[in-house]
Amino acid sequence: MNVDVEQLNERGELRHLINLGSLDRGRLEEILDLAARYLTPVGGAAPRDDILKGCTVANLFFEASTRTRASFELAAKRLRADVLNLDVNMSSRAKGESIMDTIFTLQAMQVDIFVVRDASTGVPARIAQQVAPHVCVLNAGESDASHPTQGLLDLLTIQRHKGDVGELCVAIVGDIKHSRVARSAHQALTKFGVGELRLVGPAELLPENDSFAGTVRMTALEDGIRGADVVMALRVQRERFAELGDIPDPQEYFRRYGLTAERLELARRDAIVMHPGPMNRGVEIDGAVADGPQSVIQEQVTNGVAIRMAVLALIHRHIRGTQGVAA
Ligand code: CP
Questions:
Q1: Atom of ligand 1 nearest to the CA of 304
Q2: In terms of pTM, does the model score above 0.70?
Q3: What is the C-alpha to C-alpha distance for residues 194 and 188, in angstroms, rounded to an integer?
Q4: CA-proximal residue: ligand 1, atom 5 (nearest)
Q5: Does ligand 1 come within 6 angstroms of the Cβ of 150?
Q6: In the prediction, which pLDDT does 325 show?
């Protein structure tokens, strides 16, 4: 169930990041501009700042994660926050404690920022509605509904390779129906006036007709990626299928929808290949494409840390303004 929550405080500062839909383009530009300042070349010194010194960040991941969890942890540590990674399987939620009792318990230990991933829609917003006035909540992936920092890191990656998205054709390929990544990418790209956004996949994995306004739906992979500037492959999200029998056979899926080097030749010669991870090589993408010269998949990961540093640094203004934490 979708839950509305005000993401800005009374001074117009970012407090929570739950979804991109209700933030204006200027707010997203503020995050992207700050993220660009936190980007340093891989192999060089990682960016650091002490803006979150004295703040405590708790990572609560009630669904599996490699990239987002590690990225938020590194981002918070590089801003000098104290970081708590709750082992949810060993927490008292396993004994029946409600998520809000877990949150209130950690809030009593002076956690200032909750980073939350959950399999149910509305959980990050419900937490945001109930925490103390100085506390912030960041959505790290919410069911199939929203993954706002992923949407921002994808936009940043596209802009750094292609500049203004207004003239671009972006093809998102795969299981879009179950994808929070696709929903947040759609929100981010639409706000920046993307030229054409194509949703490409088998009919049963395309979203409902009343969602993803302004997009073009295609079921033939070859048509969908022809002439595209950006091809974003998505994993088949087996964990979100109501009926196990509806999960596509991996070999048959790769035969029809796998992104191979041969198919990628249909896109523009300078097209970039993206994937949010985790990848299933040989299912939605061929390993040669994932590791090939057009792939920017590892850059997406690097950009993700910068985006999360930027979001954490911006919400710090709210904490400082309400709690008097030293800047
Ligand atoms: N892209 C993404 O959310 O990856 P993880 O599930 O590893 O965090």
A1: 1
A2: yes
A3: 9
A4: 65
A5: yes
A6: 45
